[in-house]
Amino acid sequence: MSFRARHLLGIEHLAPDEIRSVLDLAERYVDLNRRTVKSSDALEGMTQINMFFENSTRTQASFELAGKRLGADVMNMSVAQSSVKKGETLIDTALTLNAMHPDLLVVRHPNSGAVNLLASKVNCAVLNAGDGKHEHPTQALLDALTIRRAKGRIQRLTVAICGDIAHSRVARSNLILLGKMENRVRLIGPPTLMPSGVAEFGCEVFDDMREGLKGADVVMMLRLQKERMDGGFIPSEREYYHRYGLDGEKLSVAAPDAIVMHPGPMNRGVEIDGELADDINRSVIQDQVEMGVAVRMACMDLLARNLRAERGAKAAETMV
Ligand code: CP
């Protein structure tokens, strides 16, 4: 396994061989998770703390399950009941938890860069569970595993990422990963939801769904991130669905075997037609959720191996 990272803060820090290592190990955890007995001892004796400063269903639940299946002691810090509500800062909160000697810290935060800052202050391995508009690395890795299993490869595919690109950390992490693995990426959305400078990522940009979806192998829909919008980015949800919502008619111009993805939570009838989202012949949305647990197990296993090696090397140094 080739995985050198100390933390998992973003896809931008991973090399293609490290991405392949995560996906290959995750395949083994997919098999484990389908057994009746789902336990492993990869994190035995280790402590994992989950700190979610933003709401989550999939990421929080899958990190918790992943840690428990790997044998870690898992603590979910309830931010709403914590001293954060009394004004304690993110860094003071992290330093307080760091003093309790966790091995893995999983953090979601509304501010871009907050998780990187926190990683520089603690001794354990930090995993970014989504920071503002910046990165959501485990989402991009689970999407890559889903694509690789559905298409048989994660190279030389045409992937259309559609919708609210400007506010999406999922889009950013996927764009970086898919580029590193030599795929052709198209971004589709209204100009108001397209960030400036996307061309530097080497992707094509479209504001017309039917143009952008032509021949696509993978169609990845995104949620409208209303919580990050401070103005009128779309005329109305009805108009948005008419122009950018994915339905069978718009999908008909993609490759005949194109798969449909959505990171969730989804707004049915806004980004995607509800029936299409549930169509098991086209939609891999539930597979994405399943791959999420396996990918998070693989990421924590690989980081724990590096942490043990680092601590072993330090212990050896002090003995000399
Ligand atoms: N895809 C994703 O991050 O979902 P949650 O917000 O439910 O974790």
From TrEMBL:
Carbamoyl phosphate binds at residues 58-59, 108, 136, 139, 264-265. GO terms for cellular component: cytosol. One of its GO terms (biological process) is 'de novo' pyrimidine nucleobase biosynthetic process. Pathway: Pyrimidine metabolism; UMP biosynthesis via de novo pathway; (S)-dihydroorotate from bicarbonate: step 2/3. Residues 6-148 form the Aspartate/ornithine carbamoyltransferase carbamoyl-P binding domain. Belongs to the aspartate/ornithine carbamoyltransferase superfamily. ATCase family. This is Aspartate carbamoyltransferase. It comes from Gemmobacter caeni. The gene is pyrB.
